[in-house]
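Sample entry (113 residues):
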Amino acid sequence: MSVKPVDIEKAAATAQDIYEAIAVASKRARQIHSELKIEFDQRKATLEQLTGVTETTEEELDTAANPDQLKISLEFEKRPKPTEVALKEIMSHKLEWRYKETEAPPVKEKETE
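Predicted structure, serialized as tokens:
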């Protein structure tokens, strides 16, 4: 795995400041990671259904590796990392974000006597 330098100034130019850009990138990276995990789990479940293997012990995992599962794992390892994808999306202006609107507390009216 190689180190890929990132132009922080370019990322900061898309937001009000660098901290906002990093916060947005981290949230997006978490979303991407969750999507990848769901996809991986679905493919793994499908593979288990096809092979009929539901539960395995640690000894079975050590002795025999499922070549189909290894193929899926290697495919996911070759994909770009979620952080890298999120930073590319920010720098290419593909992401839009907004802040939650906070509701103002209700104003209490003074009771007149």
